[in-house]
Structure prediction request, 275 residues.
Amino acid sequence: MIVLAAPFMALLVVFAYGPVLIAAWQGFGPAAGSLPATPIVDLLSRSDVIASTTRTVAFLFVKIALNVVIGLAFALALWGETPLKRFARSLVLLPTFISIVVLGVVVIFLFDREVGLANLVLSTMGFERQNWLLQSNSAQVILFGFSIWRDQGIVMFIFLAGLSAVPPQVLEAAAVDGAGTVRSFFTITLPLMIRSTGFAMIFSLYAGAQFIAPILQITKGGPQASTSVIPYLIYQEAFEYFDYQSASALSLMFIVVVLVMAAAIGWLARPKWSY
Prediction:
């Protein structure tokens, strides 16, 4: 068995763990010309890194919360097997199967100052056209909405699976005891869906941690670095400034942030009931 597994283990070490070890060595090794400081120590003193880290953590927290709330709402609203609900579920899931680059083009078209649909509506109503993607607040909201919109289909189906796993006998017994629909949901259905909730939160964290392509395509971290998050900063350090030590150090920092948040989710979403 060991002989059979050896090629797989070798590939795993070389292509999975090898890059991580190299990144760790570069991130914690001495920075050129600044011994004995290390790249990760230098990064912690940079204002742009602190701002991007704060922005990334806030983005992930809010994304996880809204993904769970909106996805659960969609699941409850579209729970059932009528033709209309099946069609509506397909529409919610549709953005998941469309290339994120294509969706980015759609967003750019919607919010373009000259030909965008949003500005067309504003001008029709007599308001002044806006540079949506060149204003910090609106650019952040648009990218955040983009992220929520693309992931809702998967989150909805996670909760639909959780709803289908709740034993109907338990709900029937609660109804016999006089529990109403709302009380049954909050005291029975929701607690029994804790595994689905935890999985939806982990998925949202995973999706948010990879949210870089729309930033590269739509705003390039702007305006005034207001949409710059850690993954985009890693891209800049590695492929624009060719500072691979700083990019490795940022990658390690980001891995730690994601692991801490994943551990917190695992603790919060630990099952307290079994059925």
